[in-house]
Amino acid sequence: MGRAIGIMFIAMSLIPAGDMAGKLLTGTYGAAPIYVAWSRFALGLLMLMPFVPAAAWRLLANWRIWFRALLLAGGILSIQSALRTEPLANVFAAFFVGPILSYALSALLLREPVTMLRSALMLLGFGGVLLVVRPGFGGSPGLLLALLAGCFYGGFLTASRWLSPLGSPLALSLTQLAIAGLVLMPFGLSALPSFSPQVAALTLASALGSMLGNLLLLVAYARAPATRLAPLVYFQLAAATGLGWAVFGDLPDLWTWAGLSLVLGAGLASALLRR
């Protein structure tokens, strides 16, 4: 369980790093969200293919593998579209409906163990999220897209645990990259940006952060139940806050530090609870 926790922390740092690169692409360099989403999958697939055995491609015959990959494709496309127009903190606040949904789906559909204490810690962690971002949800299209991204992501997290016995993390990661890249390819190729060294570097960083983060997430979910790891997904918000500070100079205030303490404390406490 301890190794799964460490892996989750690394994964949850890499994913928002990829999102930060994607936001720079769409906000600063005018790239289309569909290009950012597709390039993530296409480049991730190219980077991963040399390390995955040929037998992994047989998983593509399973419809559940396609369902899981399409959930991830919908989530990444939705969040990149939201990040184009909305502040990073507000997007992540709406996006964090995902861990709550994953926790509930894993209990209802996968029959994984749920306790009152762990459920209370989940709610405490979500309260910490609200302290960090203090969102004023006005129902704007961008925030609705972020909510949709969170729903897609919650389903993806649960499906990852559901399908983990079908193959290794590398094999499952290969299938999600291949399927999503194939589905989005016509749209991504039609929206190619004007390339520059900056655009190329950010495109690579976006793909690498997303691919490695989701691969490590699969490794963690293969080692521990989703209901125990779901709270640690909140660490994405802490990582996003740190990246925002480093890149944009947004210094967290006292309320933000209090919220981050709740998020990390509740997540660690929940994950460390024994059977």
From TrEMBL:
GO (cellular component) term, any one: membrane
EamA domain segment(s): 141-265
Major localization listed first in the record, in broad terms: membrane
One Pfam family matching this protein: EamA
Keywords on record: Membrane, Transmembrane, Transmembrane helix
Membrane topology per record: Multi-pass membrane protein
Locations listed in the record: Membrane
TM segment ranges: 37-60, 65-83, 89-110, 117-137, 143-163, 170-193, 199-222, 229-248, 254-273
InterPro entries named in the record: EamA_dom, EmrE-like
Coiled-coil blocks: none
Family: Belongs to the drug/metabolite transporter (DMT) superfamily. 10 TMS drug/metabolite exporter (DME) (TC 2.A.7.3) family.
Database matches in PANTHER family: ACYL-MALONYL CONDENSING ENZYME-RELATED, SOLUTE CARRIER FAMILY 35 MEMBER G1
Name the record gives this protein: DMT family transporter
Species for this entry: Ruegeria pomeroyi
Lineage: Bacteria, Pseudomonadati, Pseudomonadota, Alphaproteobacteria, Rhodobacterales
